[in-house]
Specification:
Radius of gyration: 24 Å
Structural class: alpha/beta
Helix content: 40-55%
Shape: globular
Oligomer: single chain
Distance between the termini: 52 Å
Number of helices: 9
């Protein structure tokens, strides 16, 4: 007969208690590592996707493209409304029930400041405030933020009688300000304005209102942004190794 000593009994009891805890711990670690990247998209009509279906909004297309490439992103949370200026977006962020930190934040704002003829110096100040707030929402990680330029709606049929050259000139000035401030904070800036100009010769790039982009144009924006974003994601992964 095999005798079990007191020490052996204690060992077996401890093992019976600890082993399941180790299994649970490993499971929790696995679950944590499998959590998808969170994504917050900030903006106006171009971000909410005015006149296109929800699945053709550019933030939705971006998350979908990243997931198809093997990156795990959750559905984007969107804080955006057609007609919003920089001031409106600031207020919208403060009113929204959002998480304190996101893996990715994108920012596209400014066209309505230009459209309403607001002082460009006010835009400059408010855009910088928004940029700083967006960086905070990434957990103060500038390489987790992506800023897009303002599309040039001066080429659209909607703008035909609204002085298209003036619109294009002012959009260029706004984008120069955005790019300068964005780069000062070490944030990536993606210039999708040249893509928007293609609508002058291709009506399929516009939605039914002949002003906002179609899903086809939003796909082109995603293609432009993807290489920049993938480069950033690789840095995120290396930072957590």
């Amino acid at each position: 007969m095999v005798r079990v000593t007191v020490i052996q009994q204690i060992y077996m009891r401890i093992k019976a208690l600890v082993f399941p805890l180790l299994i649970v711990g490993l499971f929790l670690v696995e679950e944590a590592s499998a959590q998808p990247y969170s994504y917050l998209a900030l903006g106006d009509s171009y971000t909410i996707g005015e006149k296109v279906s929800p699945d053709h909004r550019w933030p939705v297309l971006l998350a979908d493209a990243l997931n198809k490439l093997g990156y795990s992103f959750s559905d984007p949370e969107i804080i955006a409304t057609t007609g919003w200026t920089t001031q409106d977006l600031k207020a919208g962020i403060e009113k929204a029930d959002i998480d304190p930190v996101y893996s990715l934040v994108t920012l596209l704002i400014g066209v309505n400041n230009q459209y309403r003829g607001y002082d460009i110096e006010i835009f400059k100040r408010e855009f910088e405030q928004l940029l700083k707030r967006a960086i905070e929402l990434t957990g103060s990680r500038p390489d987790h933020l992506l800023v897009l330029s303002i599309p040039d709606y001066g080429v659209t049929p909607f703008a035909e009688e609204k002085n298209p050259p003036k619109i294009s000139r002012e959009i260029h000035q706004y984008n120069a300000i955005k790019k300068s401030i964005t780069q000062q904070y070490g944030v990536s800036f993606v210039d999708i304005t040249p893509i928007s100009k293609k609508a002058a010769d291709d009506s399929t790039l516009l939605a039914g209102d002949q002003l906002h982009p179609s899903g086809e144009m939003y796909h082109m924006w995603v293609d432009k942004a993807l290489p920049v974003l993938i480069s950033q994601i690789k840095k995120w992964d290396s930072q957590t190794d």
